[in-house]
Amino acid sequence: MRRGGKWTKRAVGGFNAAVLRLRSSRRWGGRVRRYLTIVTYTGRRSGREFRIPVGFRRSGDLVTIGVRLPEAKSWWRNFTGEGGPISLELDETGRTGHATAHRDAKGRVTVTVRLAAKS
What's the rounded Cα separation, in Å, for the pair 115 and 58? Predict the structure, then answer.
């Protein structure tokens, strides 16, 4: 899969916009927010802020994000090594935390977020 092509960017942008609309709808929003969150992070090299919808699982103050097709995506690479700061929309509020990305022996990537204490 070619990364960054004109059509790819347009398709991904359209899909993400549709997910954001669905997540904020009165009818479906509650159900969708149980499984999809909005991640906000700052790119390591670009310094730009990005917002993307991702699927997640939560257990207390630990959030796990499975990255599907990791070779076709680059956002998770911002959290390799020591990881970095991240924000998520959970329980209809913004939460911050520290994210680290791990790749297993089969090439699967998981981003683990330890949420900061609520203030």
Answer: 10
